[in-house]
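Running this now, will post back.
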Amino acid sequence: MPERLLDRGSVPVPDPTKLTTDAVALAKGDIEKLFDTKLEGLRELFAEKFKGVATEFTMRDIALAAALKAAQELVKQQNESNTVAIDKAASATTKQIDSLVERIDDLKERIAELGRKDWATVGAYIVGAVGIAALVAAAVMR
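Update: finished.
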């Protein structure tokens, strides 16, 4: 066998360069398959994560829209309630004002009556005084 190796120009049989190249190519293929498998797994993992995040955003948006709609409805109801309360207060105030106007008119009439009664009383005193003076004058002249 040593003679055979020397005949070929000192390259051993089988050629280790070819074996090494074949082994490297095989290992490279295995590494590429492994890398592709891992990379695909990562892609699937990220896709699932992003899908979960997208679902969370969608649910958050739905909840936010529902909360805003509920808040708008509450504001609408509060405005309606305020309008009813304002109308009731305005009606009550109008009734109170009308009642006060009636009382003021009644007081005006009473004051006017008192004024007429005072003049009537004064007039009665004057007539009475004139009558007494006439009686006194008639008694004096008799």
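The helical segments are 2-7, 16-141. More later if anyone needs it.
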